[in-house]
Every structure is written in structure tokens, then in C-alpha cells.
Design goal:
- This protein is α+β, with helices and mostly antiparallel strands.
- It has one domain: Phage tail protein-like (STM4215-like, 2-Layer Sandwich).
- It is built from three helices and seven strands, in the order H-E-E-E-E-H-E-E-E-H.
- Strands 1, 2, 3, 4, 5, 6 and 7 form a seven-stranded mixed sheet that branches.
- A hairpin with a 4-residue loop joins strand 3 and strand 4.
- The chain is elongated and about 55 Å long.
- The C terminus is likely disordered.
């Protein structure tokens, strides 16, 4: 399976559509596990959590992946600027929830839902930038019997 077929890649593609709607600057990046010091820059990081939620007798399993979506924004003593930063994550959370209800989700096999686990928080600041963070969780169905057959064929 190539990196193109990975869940994190599919989630990243989905997030480009969300950020396109919300970002005030069209020049931005969404990296994986790397947030640079530049503003208007994001990182999607997989968090270490147990992935299996439930197993069913028929061979289906409910799994989840949790990601941290971090962003670096301009920061100052101006309240308007900082309210704008927090507003980005409020809008981000709303769009994820709205899309999920409408069935607009990342193109991940078996995906059942996508949700934000919080509203976004300030992690750290420098004299002119701030790093914010919001956790995203996806839930998806895996057919463990199909996975076993695939693994056996690969061996």
C-alpha cells in the first residue's frame, strides 16, 4: 500500500478543502508531523492511541485514529488578531461537524465519522507567532476477515 492510500494522506487531502474555506492567506502548507516557524502553516500529527474500539463476531471491527491538527498564526497584543486566531478553530470545528452530518468525509475506506474532540487551544507563543492545536478523530470499519486474507496472500 503506497502512502497515497494511507488514512493520514486522505485526511490531509480532506483538510485542504476545509482550510481553503477558512484561511485568509491562500499561501499555506499542511505538513505531516512538522510545523515550521512560518505563519499560515499547519501540521497533521498522528497521536498514539489505541485504534480498536469494538470487535464484532462477524469479523467487522470499529477502529479510530486521533490526530492533532496544529497551526501557526500571527500573534500580538491586539485582541482582534487573537480573536481571529481562535475564530479560525471555531469555524474549523463547525465545518467538520457540518460536513460529518452531511456525509462529507475524507475518502477513507469504511469511514463512519469525523469529529473534533475540542475547540482548539493555544499551545505556545513567541513574540510574534502562536501555535494552536485541535484534535480530530476519525472512526472507520475494518473487515478483519478480509484483512487476514490479504495478509495471508502477501506472505
Amino acid at each position: 500500500m503506497s502512502y497515497i492510500d494511507k488514512r493520514i494522506t486522505k485526511l490531509r487531502e480532506y483538510l485542504f478543502n476545509i482550510v481553503d474555506e477558512l484561511a485568509s492567506d491562500t499561501k499555506y502548507q499542511i505538513n505531516a508531523n512538522m510545523l515550521s516557524n512560518d505563519i499560515n502553516n499547519y501540521s497533521l500529527d498522528k497521536m498514539p492511541t489505541a485504534s480498536t474500539v469494538e470487535k464484532w463476531v462477524m469479523g467487522l471491527e470499529l477502529h479510530k485514529d486521533t490526530f492533532s491538527f496544529r497551526g501557526r498564526f500571527p500573534y500580538s497584543q491586539e485582541a482582534v488578531n487573537n480573536l481571529k486566531n481562535i475564530g479560525f478553530f471555531e469555524d474549523f470545528e463547525y465545518m467538520i461537524s457540518y460536513n460529518n452530518k452531511k456525509g462529507i468525509r475524507p475518502e477513507i475506506e469504511g469511514i463512519q465519522s469525523i469529529e473534533c474532540l475540542n475547540a482548539g487551544t493555544l499551545n505556545s507563543v513567541t513574540s510574534n507567532t502562536a501555535e494552536f492545536d485541535i484534535q480530530i478523530q476519525i472512526k472507520y470499519i475494518v473487515d478483519s476477515k478480509k484483512e487476514e486474507v490479504s495478509l495471508w496472500i502477501m506472505l
